[in-house]
Design brief:
Length: about 300
């Protein structure tokens, strides 16, 4: 190569914007070797060194290590192969950072102890299979062994979280909280009681008319009264309570008496566990669903109204 086509390390630094020290560093490692040397022994570089240095800078900015960069610029491996491998590595790092962020965010919000933080971190790192087994155990506790004529297979599916491969931080945070909640013995027992009440309703009710469970009956009747601001213990609430209990009694072919009303009250108090509603809201975040309608105000109103009309 003619001398006028070669440039000094200083000229190369001016053309690329890199420092002389950086170019010398890459040169010493054989990534951008000099083409020749001047009579005084100074390094001289060909015009292709500019392109190589631009590529080196780009790959370094993307986080590639020097041995890999040397293979790319020497065409020992293709850039597309390196890009694919590096993209996958970055995806793993991103998932890891999201998990860490979610745990730290939850710790900051709750003021968690070191033991709680350790548990949250372990829950966040579970594999897909491990998450499935953990939630499967919870759902088995709640619904296992109950007659599927009550629709528990569909209920199980609707209560199963499916964390995406690349979840957002809020989805990871929701998963950690849901996983903790699913291990709460008291919550698990409450879910089992609710499921048993539901199964009993389906087994004992007139299936030709039992299109909805007691919760749906209450929601439909109480919603307008709640919206109208009717006091649940006032006489104005009497027709609402009577309408619900009469419909419930009719479906089950039983008299609308104290025993039936106590049974309905127990059913609704079991269903009105705030932890159950929290589970469903967390589930919606994880699965990317719309937030479910809160039935707590309706249940609170009706249980107060019904309790006020039962003998002490």
């Amino acid at each position: 190569m003619d001398g006028d086509m070669l440039c000094s390390i200083g000229d190369l630094a001016r053309r690329t914007g890199l420092t002389v020290k950086a170019i010398r560093f890459y040169s010493d490692r054989g990534i951008v070797p000099p083409t020749d040397r001047s009579p005084a022994g100074h390094r001289l570089y060909g015009i292709d060194a500019v392109a190589r240095l631009e590529l080196v800078r780009t790959l370094r900015d993307l986080g590639l290590d020097l041995p890999t960069i040397r293979k790319v610029v020497d065409r020992e491996i293709s850039l597309s192969e390196v890009a694919a491998a590096h993209a996958e590595a970055l995806a793993v790092q991103i998932r890891t950072l999201r998990l860490r962020r979610a745990v730290l965010t939850a710790v900051a919000k709750r003021g968690s102890t070191p033991e709680e933080m350790d548990l949250m971190h372990k829950l966040a790192k579970l594999s897909e299979d491990e998450r499935g087994r953990l939630i499967g155990d919870f759902l088995d506790t709640a619904f296992g062994g109950l007659d599927d004529n009550a629709g528990f297979l569909g209920i199980r599916r609707s209560m199963t979280p499916e964390l995406p491969d690349n979840p957002e931080a809020e989805q990871v945070e929701a998963w950690v909280e849901l996983a903790e909640l699913s291990q709460d013995p008291d919550f698990r027992a409450g879910m089992r009681r609710t499921a048993e009440h539901h199964a009993a309703e389906r087994a004992q009710g007139d299936t030709t008319r039992l299109r909805r469970d007691s919760a749906a009956m209450v929601r439909d009747q109480v919603g307008p009264a709640l919206a109208a601001g009717i006091d649940p213990v006032s006489p104005q609430a009497d027709p609402v309570v009577a309408a619900v209990t009469a419909q419930y009694a009719d479906v089950f072919g039983r008299p609308d008496d104290v025993d039936l009303r106590r049974r309905l009250l127990a059913r609704l108090e079991s269903a009105n566990d705030p932890r159950r509603e929290r589970y469903l809201r967390l589930l919606a975040v994880i699965n990317g669903w719309l937030a479910p309608e809160s039935l707590a105000p309706v249940f609170d109103w009706f249980t107060q109204a019904l309790r006020a009309r039962l003998p002490g």
